[in-house]
Design goal:
Layout lengths: L15 H8 L4 H14 L3 H12 L16
């Protein structure tokens, strides 16, 4: 779980969906819509899971630094 984090720059509430979308290479808007739809049908179970992830995952610090990967 060391690769999972909350996004500090792509967040609406806490950055959980932004971090998960980045880690699993998903569309963040699609993931947010899917979470919202599932929350409507499962009576708050995703909200509890979201709160747990919010508490457990660390926020990825950006501080204006851009990550650059150079392939040699």
């Amino acid at each position: 779980m060391n690769n999972l984090y909350r996004s500090s720059d792509d967040k609406v509430i806490a950055g959980v969906c932004g971090g998960l979308a980045h880690r699993f290479d998903l569309n963040v808007t699609g993931l947010r819509c899917a979470v919202a739809l599932v929350a409507l049908f499962l009576s708050g179970v995703p909200a509890v899971l979201y709160a747990i992830l919010w508490a457990v995952l660390k926020e990825r610090p950006t501080g204006g630094v851009i990550d650059v990967v150079i392939d040699v």
